[in-house]
Amino acid sequence: IDVAHGVILDVEPTPAHRTAEVESTKTMVERVEERFDLTPHRLIGDTAYGTAPMLGWMVEEKGIEPSVPVWDKSERRDDTFPCSDFLWDAGKKEYRCPAGKALKHNWRPFKKPRSHITQADTVVYRASQRDCTACPMKAKCCPNTPMRKIARSIHEDAREMARCIRKTVQYQQSRCERKKVEMLFAHLKCILRLDRLRLRGLNGARDEFTLAAAVQNLRRLAKLASPPRPFGGQIASTAQEIG
DNA sequence: ACGTGCTACCCAAGTCGTAT
DNA sequence: ATACGACTTGGGTAGCACGT
Question: From the record, what ranges are coiled-coil (predicted)?
Fold first, then answer.
């Protein structure tokens, strides 16, 4: 949905699965690009869209600003230093711990050079065991392990961008714009009676939703095209009954 | 001895499947 | 219709085996 105008640009049904729902966004964004040569400047969504691969796709592949909360479970519960207390040095590609020591992914060279990217698409940055053993802050940092380590997503730059956007006024506005989307869904359910589908299967859902979206867009078009009328309220309610 | 990469396991929020 | 446990998801940490 284009929130600036309340126009539905594409429809893609999925099973009620978080990953499937999120993946369908890629399908729709790319299809709208092909059909209408339109690319969104930013994308508004909830935390389900805040996973590292999704943010990476938005920022790195599409150049879309993510107005999305970051899926982040890095906060610790045991009163030890959280990851956010470690400063990232983009130039040196290493972290700096609260005691000022480095966390690196390449402490030494290898005969066969390695990418250091793990199966979880992260790079593990570790402090030196020697530094941690001698550190007076060890109890506040890594009480249960020989050294502190941080798994950094290969999409961390995109995650960081989403964190920064979340602090902006623009993000607060996007929260309000999301209401326009919710209003369309509410209208679909209550007025167009689409709280339950009649046709079975994904194809049935696609047909019903596509027709409903067309109806929504025609309503919008009528609103934009017709000049304001003196007895607008009465006419509007009649139109709804016909609809 | 120590760095590296993998696996096991935990968490929270959600869906799915089954028994009642 | 409802309750409840199993399972899924992506993120985290701890610890082990292996390579240098």
Answer: none
